[in-house]
Write a structure and sequence with these properties.
By secondary structure, this protein is an all-alpha fold. The chain has 4 helices and no strands. α1 packs antiparallel against α2.
């Protein structure tokens, strides 16, 4: 599979677009506060109804004083959202490329001709056994997770038994029996 040509897009171009995005976000809040002031000065419709004049002035003032904070929060949220989107895109691309490039289940390679792949074969056998384990038992978790949970339960019961025995021993020693 050949990598597509993106017409000269490189790291510098993407960085320039990201800086432009962040600056646009900061300028948006400055423009929003100014447009509210212009709406008030132009005596737009509904300004003098109820508390609208007070609320619009308060909103404009709050946006003007908090524009850096709101811009920073919006920019960080946008960059995090873009990062997640790119990560999901790369993950999907990787899944497709790996399926095309390596259409088989196992790929084992070593430059050393003396290598006998004992550890790799043991891992392949363990993976095969875990798939058979799921098929025959109906347990949806893998073998290692299944036995890991079993080990943790056994360890928890053992710790409870040890603590109970220790507390009883301490009570017997303190009571003088």
């Amino acid at each position: 599979m050949v990598c597509p040509d993106y017409g000269g897009w490189n790291g510098g171009t993407v960085l320039g677009f990201l800086i432009g995005l962040v600056l646009t976000i900061y300028l948006f809040y400055t423009g929003l506060a100014s447009s509210i002031v212009c709406y008030i000065r132009g005596e737009g419709e509904g300004i003098y109804k109820g508390q609208n004049l007070f609320l619009l002035r308060q909103l404009s003032s709050k946006i003007k004083t908090m524009r850096f904070t709101m811009g920073t929060i919006t920019a960080l949220f946008m960059l995090a959202f873009l990062g997640c989107t790119v990560a999901m895109m790369f993950g999907d691309y990787q899944d497709k490329v790996l399926e095309e490039k390596f259409p088989f289940d196992v790929h084992v390679y070593s430059g050393n001709v003396e290598d006998d792949f004992r550890e790799e074969l043991a891992g392949i056998i363990a993976l095969f056994i875990s798939r058979k384990f799921i098929f025959y038992t109906g347990v949806e978790t893998g073998v290692f997770q299944y036995f890991g949970i079993s080990f943790l339960l056994f360890f928890g019961v053992y710790v409870l038994y040890f603590l109970t025995t220790y507390v009883q021993f301490r009570q017997n020693v303190e009571s003088g029996d």
